[in-house]
Amino acid sequence: MSASIQEQLVEFLNSVTGQTISDSTELIDSGLLDSLTMMDLLVFVESDFEVRLDFQDIRPDLFKNPATISQLIAERQAEQKKAA
């Protein structure tokens, strides 16, 4: 897992939520990740990390906190690199 992915995610989430978020901040349970923030996050992930997320990737357990999202991004990047 890349630390830079987590750092970029935390920085992005801090900017869109106006809150101080850490790698382990519960995004869904805390209410920080509402539907609009989720859409912004998906666009950010797909554009900045150049990964394509499938519908089945949009699950609460994968978007639980910045660490789980970073792991998902790293896995999708590895899969795309392997397929290329």
How does this model look, in words?
The chain is an all-alpha fold and 84 residues long. 56% of the residues lie in helices and 0% in strands. Helix 1 runs antiparallel to helix 2 and helix 1 crosses helix 3. The two termini are 20 Å apart.
Strand-residue proportion: under 5%
- Rg over alpha carbons: 12 Å
Instruction: Please estimate the helix content.
Output: 55-70%
Low-confidence stretches: none
Structural class: mainly alpha
**Can you tell me the overall shape?**
globular
DSSP, total strands: 0
The average pLDDT value, as a whole number, equals 93
Number of helices: 3
- Terminus-to-terminus distance: 20 Å
Helix/strand order: HHH
- Assembly state: single chain
User: Major sheet: size, sense and barrel closure?
Assistant: none
Descriptive labels:
84 residues
Short description:
With 84 residues, the protein is an all-alpha fold.
